[in-house]
Write a structure and sequence with these properties.
- The structure holds three protein chains of three kinds.
- By secondary structure, chain A is α+β, with helices and mostly antiparallel strands.
- Chain A is built from nine helices and 20 strands.
- Chain A folds into two domains: 230 residues, 3-Layer(aba) Sandwich (Rossmann fold); 115 residues, Nucleic acid-binding proteins (OB fold (Dihydrolipoamide Acetyltransferase, E2P), Beta Barrel).
- In chain A, helix 3 packs across helix 4 and helix 3 packs parallel to helix 5.
- Chain B is mostly helical.
- Helices cover 75% and strands 0% of the residues of chain B.
- Chain B is built from twelve helices and no strands.
- The mean pLDDT of chain B is 87.
- Chain C is built from twelve helices and two strands.
- In chain C, helix 9 runs antiparallel to helix 12 and helix 11 runs antiparallel to helix 12.
- Classes of the chains: A alpha+beta, B mainly alpha, C mainly alpha.
- At the B-C interface, helix 1, helix 3, helix 4, helix 5 and helix 6 of B face helix 1, helix 3, helix 4, helix 5 and helix 7 of C.
Chain lengths: 358, 267, 285
């Protein structure tokens, strides 16, 4: 393994006989933005708290810049942390909140004021320095929390669900704001989130966690296109999933459901083997009847702004299709349509691979 | 998720000492109550119920106990009957004098019981009500009503008004809404208030000592008088019974509402 | 929905309570206030003449001043000790996990419901010359100490009775505190002590202040504890009033002392309200 800036080596946390985190190995390069993605209870927050020093690992090591920090007290690690609740000091002003870490480091008063001012400028809060946290909006509080964590110039910035307390529109804005600030400062960042859109849009790499284990580490694009497990394919983005049977010998065969032949990516499977088929809604195309590979009837149509989402009743089951909004009204409910796709977009796996994943 | 929220050994030692301090007098009472000796001693070899039996040949204590039970029951019930409508009016209506009335109903909380006691004594001496059980009940109602009022008000203000509005839109009359929707939702607050009022009335000493007469002496007053004269293990037996009674009431309160909620809400 | 109903409804709802409270709170207090100005004669009793003599006697006589001074001193000492025990105890409690947290919270505040006579009696047994505390002292080699009927006994028992009133408001303000705030201070480089001093303490001062005022007010007017643990000699304000009424039968003088206790209590409560409001204004504005 390449020695990263921050490395986790078989990091585990066991509560009684429950393993909250099991053997997490991760190497983060300097300046990288890595997200830990997973549903609640998957161990992502515990992992973050172990890095922060707030939870003691049961096993494993945490190395920062070649130094073992596994047993170091949180106030000696010097990491910047943005808490999910922001955890601002309610009795201190914005400026006092941001200055707190510098004060603990005995930074001289004049330098302190200067650095606080610069940092507040970076997060666009220069005007609100004398306000108290309760006088700020959610987005402003969040930026105070970021400024407070960054002003100490931490080697690593840890973000615990930083956007989950914001409403949808603000969350999207803050995503880009977060990435802008991170790129400006160049701090190595680890973010914990359960929101796949958030993780995919701003990270260099995404770590998917499931039941305390890491199941995939990849760039957002590759994660989306090549999910390693059925769990990931269903958790990241929308996915149509169907059960079928493989016909024909080996790679030259095809998938079949209820007698309907479904052209797909070549797969080396035995004749008659049960298979799991999956295809993303945006990889399906709506065509006139007779011009596609599978006929169906539109059951529902939802307008989602930048695209339309259709549910189409077909002989093989109900399938979701998304179509970009090109400004024209598309087929309406009840219309007969045909579905088409690139054979490479229809993934085929042996059914057993689906395993117990829900 | 509360990382590093563990207490260290020094904190736990301190905590243990505080717990011992809080429980020591109660535990000692319960132990001494079972002594076979004539002196206040902790039984080491054998336990005896003789001091519990001694209570029953002391009609004073039995009478006072029965008297206190009646007093607390009546006072708590009257207090609920007064506090529920008052809480409804204060919570639901804007009317002149509302804040003043609220302050008036809560005032017994900030007037020392000693002062209330001498004030009642003066009034009763002037109107010739000294020694009357009914007037004693009235004084207890005054002292315990604030507790009931506060719990009922808390229950009312925590109530989801849209449930009442939903019932109205479904065709219920105002009276039906109160009976079928409001009352059941406030009931825990009322019951909790009644029990808390009962305990407070049953335990009240400082005010009662001024307004009870030999015929209406309550149990705490009887115990206080007895303890200033002589101390023998029978006091321990009576006290142990009172602790047991309070513990039982606490258990009921805790099961039904969570005692910490009721007590922490109380000042 | 209230518009349709006559404005009479709220008045009907509050009238029984109002009548009772006017008749049994306001009227008796006024009567007592008047009583405190009546002339008292040891042979003929209360006379229909008025005088300031009782108030003058109370503020000039060393006997009464001594008792007031003791009352203030012991109430102040009780408040201080309660704060010193209550603050760390509430903090320790808040860091416990359930079920321990609920169990110990009940252990600390549950005794509130046990009659104060019972608790005072328990302490008189513990502190007696052959009591458990003295046995323990002897075991440790500090000969038997006279504890019962001393100010020490009064303060110990008062702390026992008042501690819940201190723990409750501090506990409440600790509950409002985001536990992550303390963790945030650590991660920013603060030591545990520094995080406590700079981040936790400022937010529980209001709770501690409110607890202190309640404890002080209740201690200064406490009756059963000084009555049972102070003996006949060590009087506090409340036991003094009781003696004036029940033994000396000098009701007007007793009434004057009671009025002084009441006024002092109200001043404390009003000062507290002012302080809370001022603080609320400051941090909001």
């Amino acid at each position: 393994m390449v020695m990263g800036f921050l490395t986790l080596e078989s990091l585990s946390k066991i509560y009684g006989d429950l393993a909250a985190v099991r053997d997490v190995d991760l190497s983060v390069a300097k300046g990288e933005f890595v997200s830990l993605l997973g549903p609640s209870g998957c161990g992502k927050t515990t992992t973050l708290q172990m890095i922060a020093g707030l939870v003691e690992p049961s096993k494993g090591r945490i190395m920062l810049d070649g130094r073992d920090i596994t047993r170091l007290a949180p106030n000696k690690r010097g990491l910047g942390i943005v808490f999910q609740s922001y955890a601002l000091f309610p009795h201190m002003t914005v400026a006092e909140n941001v200055a707190f870490g510098l004060e603990m480091r005995n930074v001289p008063k004049s330098e302190r004021a200067e650095r606080v001012r610069t940092m507040l400028g970076l997060v666009h809060l220069g005007q609100l320095a004398e306000r108290y946290p309760r006088q700020l909006s959610g987005g402003q509080r969040q930026r105070v929390a970021i400024a407070r964590a960054l002003v100490i110039q931490p080697p690593v910035l840890l973000l615990d669900e930083p956007l989950s307390n914001l409403d949808a529109k603000l969350r999207e804005e803050m995503q880009f704001e977060l990435r802008r600030i991170q790129q400006r400062v160049g701090t190595t960042t680890i973010m914990v989130t359960h929101d796949q859109a958030e993780a995919l849009s701003i990270s260099d790499r995404v770590v998917v966690m499931e039941l305390g284990r890491m199941t995939q580490i990849d760039a957002p694009y590759r994660l989306y296109e090549n999910p390693a497990t059925p769990f990931i394919s269903s958790f990241v983005g929308k996915m149509n999933r169907l059960d079928g049977i493989w016909r024909g010998a080996g790679a030259s065969g095809h998938a079949e459901i209820a007698g309907v032949k479904l052209p797909s990516e070549a797969a080396d499977l035995a004749d008659g083997q049960a298979v799991a088929l999956s295809i993303r809604p945006e990889k399906l195309l709506l065509r006139q009847v007779g011009q596609g590979r599978l006929d169906g009837t539109i059951v529902n149509r939802f307008f989602l702004g930048s695209y339309w989402l259709f549910t189409v009743e077909t002989p093989v089951g109900v399938i979701s299709v998304s179509v970009p909004n090109d400004g024209e009204e598309p087929a309406s409910e009840g219309a007969k349509v045909a579905l088409d796709w690139q054979p490479a977009s229809l993934r085929v796996e042996p059914a057993s691979a689906r395993g117990d994943a829900a | 998720m509360s990382p590093m929220q563990k207490n260290g050994p020094i904190a736990l030692l301190f905590h243990t000492l505080v717990v011992i301090f809080m429980l020591a007098p109660l535990v000692v009472i319960c132990l001494v109550a079972f002594t076979p000796e004539n002196t206040l001693s902790i039984p080491t070899t054998s336990f005896s119920l003789r001091w519990f039996q001694a209570i029953f040949v002391h009609p004073d204590f039995v009478d006072s106990f029965v008297n206190s039970l009646w007093l607390a029951t009546l006072a708590a019930s009257i207090s609920v009957a007064l506090a529920v409508p008052a809480a409804l009016a204060i919570d639901r209506y804007q009317f002149p004098g509302r804040d003043t009335l609220n302050a008036l109903f809560l005032s017994p909380l900030i007037i020392p019981h000693l002062v209330l006691g001498v004030a009642f004594l003066r009034l009763f001496a002037l109107i010739g009500a000294t020694g009357s059980f009914a007037w004693l009940v009235a004084t207890h109602v005054i002292v315990i009503t604030p507790y009931v009022l506060r719990l009922v008000m808390a229950a009312l203000s925590g109530l989801d008004r849209s449930a009442e509005q939903a019932a109205l839109t479904l065709g219920a009359s105002h009276w039906t809404v109160f009976r079928r929707v409001t009352a059941p939702m406030v009931l825990p607050g009322i019951t909790g208030g009644w029990l808390l009022a009962f305990i407070n009335s049953f335990d009240e000493l400082t005010m009662s000592i001024f307004v009870t007469s030999p015929q209406t002496v309550t149990l705490p007053v009887r115990m206080y008088m007895y303890a200033t004269e002589s101390i023998d293990p029978m006091m321990a037996a009576v006290s142990a019974l009172m602790i047991a009674l309070t513990a039982a009431a606490m258990l009921v309160l805790d099961r039904a509402f969570g005692l910490d909620k009721i007590l922490v809400g109380q000042k | 929905m209230n518009r349709a109903r006559p404005a009479l409804t709220p008045w009907l709802l509050v009238s029984p309570g109002t009548l009772l409270f006017l008749g049994l709170v306001v009227l008796p207090l006024i009567l007592t206030f008047i009583l405190s100005f009546h002339v008292y004669d040891h042979t003929t009793g209360i006379k229909n003449e008025f005088t300031f003599a009782h108030y003058a006697a109370v503020v000039s006589d060393d006997y009464y001043l001594g008792i007031f001074w003791r009352t203030l001193r012991l109430a102040g000492l009780t408040t201080l000790i309660c704060a010193l025990i209550g603050l760390p105890e509430a903090y320790v409690l808040s860091r416990m996990r359930d079920p321990w947290r609920s169990v110990f919270l009940l252990v600390i505040i549950g005794p509130l419901l046990v009659s104060v006579v019972v608790r005072a009696f328990g302490w008189s047994m513990l502190l007696g010359s052959t009591g458990l505390v003295n046995q323990l002292l002897q075991l440790l080699g500090f000969g038997p100490a006279r504890l019962l009927y001393t100010e020490t006994a009064i303060v110990i028992a008062l702390v026992h009775v008042m501690l819940p009133f201190m723990v409750i408001p501090i506990w409440t303000s600790l509950q409002k505190l985001d536990p992550m705030v303390e963790a945030a201070a650590w991660t920013l480089g603060a030591s545990r002590f520094m995080a406590l001093r700079r981040v936790v303490m400022p937010q529980v001062t209001m709770g501690m202040l409110s607890g202190s005022l309640i404890v002080f007010g209740l201690s200064a007017s406490a009756f059963a504890i000084p009555g049972l643990l102070g003996g006949r000699r060590l009087k506090m304000a409340a036991t003094l009033v009781y003696d004036e009424y029940m033994h000396e039968l000098n009701w007007p003088l007793g009434a004057a002392i009671a009025i002084i206790v009441l006024v002092a209590n109200l001043i404390i409560m009003l000062a507290y309200n002012r302080m809370v409001e001022a603080r609320a204004r400051r941090t909001l504005g």
